[in-house]
Design brief:
It is a single chain. With 87 residues, the chain is mainly α. The protein has one domain. The protein has two helices and no strands. Helix 1 packs antiparallel against helix 2. It is rod-shaped, with a radius of gyration of 22 Å.
């Protein structure tokens, strides 16, 4: 589970880097062409923002699931190491 989270995070960063480069190109294009294509710019940036939001939600869910798994392991470890005579 840990390796899956790490792998997903690395893939996330690669995809985010690609999207950032695309957004920079889009912004440069808009600045060079002018506001004539503002509709195309808005549509493109909206798609990229939506994609990023989906990526963040997926990563956040994976983090939450991993934390849940860690807590469950900790609880099991605590139960196994519980010594009633120490009370």
């Amino acid at each position: 589970m840990e390796q899956e989270l790490i792998k997903s995070h690395m893939e996330f960063l690669k995809e985010e880097s690609i999207l950032l480069k695309e957004e920079s190109k889009l912004l440069n294009k808009l600045q060079n062409i002018g506001e004539n294509d503002i509709d195309g710019y808005v549509n493109e940036i909206e798609m990229k923002v939506n994609k990023k939001l989906g990526m963040y939600v997926k990563l956040k869910n994976m983090i939450e699931e991993f934390k849940k798994h860690l807590n469950e392991e900790e609880e099991m470890h605590t139960k196994i190491n519980f010594n009633p005579s120490s009370l």
